[in-house]
Amino acid sequence: KKITFILFALIAGTTFAQTTAEAIASADIVSPLTITKAADFNFGKVSNVTGGTVTIDPDNSLNASSDAVFIGSNTLTAASFTVTATDTYAYTVNLGGDITLTNQAVGNGGETMLVTDLNHNSTEEGVLSGTETFGVGGTLTVAAGKIPGHYEGTMTVGVSYI
Question: Average pLDDT over the chain, rounded to whole?
Answer without folding.
Answer: 83
